[in-house]
Design a protein that fits this description.
Blueprint (H helix, E strand, L loop, with lengths): L3 H7 L3 H7 L4 H11 L8 H6 L7 E4 L5 H12 L6 H4 L4 H12 L2 E3 L2 E5 L12 E2 L10
Antiparallel strand pairs: 1-3, 1-4, 2-3
Helix pairs in contact: 5-7
Length: about 140
């Protein structure tokens, strides 16, 4: 079943709903997140192409704050384990802000959404991928 947001968005274009009818629950969440983001789908062609382009987005449902993005960024870029007293001294917000600019990420009610470039290497297998940067430009 389509997410209510996806149903509402495509209800005026019955021909666009056919490709979306087979979306998995995860891809429905992804579509809902995209629709809440600056990468919102606005044309019938974008909706039709969405199922084939989900690998160009990452939705991280467990990330909801800039601090979370900062800690993830640090975990990906630090080669050493820091003791708790050093971790306590780190402010993750500047790292999160940097990562958000670098990744063109944004927060939605579904989690943190990233638009991947076609040449981006995916480093974390927990991520769910979706979208095509060539078709889903930031508004």
């Amino acid at each position: 079943m389509l997410h209510p947001l996806a149903q509402w968005t495509i209800s005026s274009s019955p021909s666009s709903s056919q490709p979306l009818a087979g979306l998995s629950p995860e891809d429905c969440d992804l579509l809902a997140a995209v629709q809440e983001s600056p990468y919102r789908l606005t044309t019938l062609e974008q909706f039709r192409e969405f199922p084939a382009n989900t690998e160009y987005f990452i939705l991280e449902p467990n990330i909801s704050k800039v601090e979370d993005v900062g800690w993830r960024y640090l975990a990906q870029h630090l080669d050493v384990l820091l003791p708790p007293e050093l971790l306590d001294a780190i402010d993750p917000v500047p790292f999160g802000n940097h990562a958000m600019r670098e990744e063109q990420g944004c927060f939605t009610s579904r989690g943190y959404l990233i638009l991947l470039k076609k040449d981006t290497e995916i480093k974390n297998e927990r991520h769910h991928h979706f979208g095509d940067g060539a078709h889903f430009q930031q508004q």
